[in-house]
Design brief:
Length: 304
């Protein structure tokens, strides 16, 4: 049966409420169910639950589709930083911005956590962490390693829990820039094309399978810290980095400033001391991934 114009308008204005039980957050969406649907596809282990219309749960934040884009309402939860001057105009932009603000909300709830800009992938029982460097390819390398048997923990933000200073999985699908370069290799492009999530002309989420991405809150120790440096040509080379140099780098990449500076320094020193520290020079994604995986395998068996 074809819906009338009035019925379509009522459907567009319907509200959807979701509970993210992993952290106790409730969000409401009016006139933008596509944003709620998109969030559901990119979250892993967040205990995403649609609430019935009869539920009286009060939302932490309410997103409404309006003619100019999207409006944000919340008494206590910060909105995405760009929404004052540049509200999103597409569902993909809204999903991406809400995904970003989750990190701020998380740190307000877990005030004793550190948080590093970077990607992380687990092999065996340990993490390889790639502290963020500008346009160095950490997200694509993380997805490539997931295609080679790794378990992606994050492609942008790695929380560090306070008890053992282990890395924690955020359970958020990785985000890649479009278009994918042919230089990434046809196996990688095929892998991504089979896992397409929300996307627009500039970005796409990779909807990894449960065996390829760790669920929210899973923990693992950081065994390797690797700085990425692209070059124009040649094979991949892994070189040792002095511990003090790596410590300076990850201090710059920590954005959880609610932990006192002395405690932050002590904790990052412990992480750096326990981890093998490298810089990876590479031009081809496949070479980089193979070099990293081989180095981690040697570390696991005690070889140097």
């Amino acid at each position: 049966m074809r819906m009338t114009g009035a019925a379509l308008r009522r459907a567009d204005n319907q509200s959807v409420r979701i509970a993210l039980d992993a952290l106790g957050w409730t969000l409401a969406f009016t006139g933008c169910q596509d944003v709620a649907d998109g969030l559901e596809t990119i979250l892993n282990g967040w205990k995403f639950r649609r609430l019935p219309p009869s539920s009286n749960a009060r939302p932490c934040a309410h997103v409404t589709k309006i003619s100019a884009g999207y409006r944000w309402r919340s008494a206590h939860f910060s909105k995405p930083s760009l929404w004052d001057k540049h509200p999103p105009t597409s569902a993909m932009s809204a999903i991406n911005d809400i995904h970003d603000v989750f990190f701020d909300w998380f740190l307000k709830k877990r005030r004793n956590y550190l948080c590093l800009h970077g990607a992380a992938v687990r092999f065996g029982h340990g993490l390889i962490c790639f502290p963020s460097t500008h346009h160095a390819g950490k997200s694509t390398l993380g997805v490539k390693l997931a295609s080679m048997g790794g378990m992606l923990y994050c492609d942008d933000v790695l929380p560090i829990e306070p008890r053992h200073d282990h890395g924690m999985a955020m359970g958020i699908a990785p985000l890649l820039r479009k278009p994918l370069s042919p230089g990434l290799g046809s196996p990688f492009i095929r892998f991504v094309s089979k896992r397409l999530g929300p996307s627009d002309r500039r970005w796409l989420y990779v909807k990894l399978k449960k065996t390829e991405i760790a669920p929210f809150a899973e923990l693992a120790p950081i065994k390797m810290l690797v700085l990425l440096q692209r070059k124009k040509r040649g094979g991949a080379k892994l070189r040792l980095v002095p511990k003090n140099e790596m410590l300076k780098e990850i201090l710059l990449q920590n954005f959880a400033h609610q932990v006192p500076p002395v405690a932050t320094l002590d904790r990052l020193m412990r992480i750096t001391k326990r981890a093998d520290c490298y810089r990876l020079h590479y031009s081809r994604l496949t070479d980089a991934a193979r070099t990293i995986k081989a180095a981690f395998r040697k570390r696991s068996f005690g070889a140097r």
